[in-house]
Amino acid sequence: MSGVGYRTATPEDLPSLRSTWAEAFPATDVGAVWATDPGRFGRTFVAVRDARVVAAVHYLPRRLRAADGTVDLVGGVANVATRPAERGQGHVRRLLDLAVTAMTVDGCAWALLFTGTPAVYRGSGFRTFRLGYTSGRPAPPTAPPEGWTVRPGSWTDWPDLAPPHRAFNAHRPLSTVRSDHDWRHRVPAWYAPPAELLVAWKHGEPVGYLVRERSAGLVRVVEVAGGAEALRALFGAVAATAHADRAERCVARLPADPVVGAALPWLLSDPVPEVDETGMVRPVHADAARLAATTGAPGAFHWPGDYL
User: Which whole-number Å values give the CA distances from 270 to 11, 62, 201, 263, 278, in the listed order?
Assistant: First the structure.
């Protein structure tokens, strides 16, 4: 067996890169979102043995709102994978070093990732943070407020939903400042079927939306935007479907926000607090205090549609 080299990816690596991801993530096509990054090859770092990719890390620069109201350039880490036979050899740490070096050159303030295996990243300086949300039984179904309608949306609706999203998250720490490219490519990819988009309309204008995921006995609400009445209409529609589906549990993966809180009784009965600890951050040019202020700020949240 020959030695391993560490470098940026090239188009010629694509077959073995995809097979590496397929081995690591057999239930998810992570390459679909990766393919929306125009600079993906130059920011994908690979470990190569015998001309074959055996491990990979992708870095994507993103603009995230900070606790002080400014916007930070953040290095998002994604698609971290190692072939099973190559694990335990330090490939990911070497590739993360290359990614952080690139972030430093690019001027990133800090790095962000989401994972179910935090121990892999602690040795590279990443630390976990917590995001709260709620779950409970679906609320009884209710009609939308007068003048409101809720209809299923499609991927073609996403660009038109940028204004309510921007208004809802204008001062939300940890949220992403989405570009037109994000609305046309990344958000539809993350919220592709079986996720479902619902749009709240008033006076012929889309003024709010909700993304839900349904499975046996469960409904998950993973993103919303809009004012209190829009959310009441959307939550009522979800509750009605949950009742028809005989769902027993609803997860509202939503921020601690006054607008959400005012409308939540139309979605949940007997809400229970929950905690998500899959997020990790690492300073690059910023200091640790800035990261702690942003991740711990009231209402701070990162939407799954902006995952990396």
Answer: 52, 37, 28, 14, 25
Q: Can you name the residues that pair with 282 across neighbouring β-strands?
A: 111
Residue 39 — very low, low, confident or very high, per pLDDT cuts 50/70/90? very high
pLDDT band at 1 (very low <50, low <70, confident <90, very high): low
Judging by DSSP bridges, how do beta strands 196-202 and 205-215 pair with one another? antiparallel
pLDDT value, residue 145? 87
Which domains are seen in the chain, by residue range? 4-131+276-306 (3.40.630.30), 133-274 (3.40.630.30)
Identity of the amino acid at 7: R
The confidence band for 257, taking pLDDT boundaries of 50, 70 and 90, is very high
pLDDT tens by residue, 129-155? 999 999 999 999 998 888 999 999 999
Residue 89 has pLDDT above 90, yes or no: yes
Structure token digits, residue 229: 């009445």
In eight-state DSSP terms, residue 89 is S
Backbone dihedral region for residue 299 (phi beyond 0: left; psi -120 to 50: alpha; all else: beta): left
Cα–Cα distance measured from residue 156 to residue 135, given in angstroms and rounded to the nearest whole number: 30
| Cα dihedral value 137, 141, 145, 151, nearest 10 | 100
* CB-based contact 140:239 (threshold 8 Å): yes
Q: What angle do CA 87, 88, 91 make, to 5 degrees?
A: 75
| Distance (Å, whole) CA 72 – CA 74 | 6
At 165, list the tokens: 């999203």
pLDDT of 27 > 90? The answer is: no
d(C-alpha 235, C-alpha 256), whole Å = 16
Q: Do the beta carbons of residue 161 and residue 49 sit within 8 Å? A: no
